Amino acid sequence: MTKIKMIIEYDGSHYHGYQKQANAAPTIQAELEDGIQSLTGLKVKLTSAGRTDAGVHALGQVITFTSPASIPPDRWAAALNSVLPGDIRVLESKQVPVDFHPRFDAISKHYRYLIYRGQRGRIFLRRYACIHDGVLDLSLMQEACSLIQGQHNFKAFCSSGSSVKSFERTVYRCSLTEKKDLLYMDIEANGFLYNMVRIIMGSLLEIGSGRMDIGDIEQAFTTGIRDHLGPTAPPQGLYLMGVDYGSRSD
Amino acid sequence: MTKIKMIIEYDGSHYHGYQKQANAAPTIQAELEDGIQSLTGLKVKLTSAGRTDAGVHALGQVITFTSPASIPPDRWAAALNSVLPGDIRVLESKQVPVDFHPRFDAISKHYRYLIYRGQRGRIFLRRYACIHDGVLDLSLMQEACSLIQGQHNFKAFCSSGSSVKSFERTVYRCSLTEKKDLLYMDIEANGFLYNMVRIIMGSLLEIGSGRMDIGDIEQAFTTGIRDHLGPTAPPQGLYLMGVDYGSRSD
Question: Does A89 contact B11 at a Cβ distance shorter than 8 Å?
Answer without folding.
Answer: no
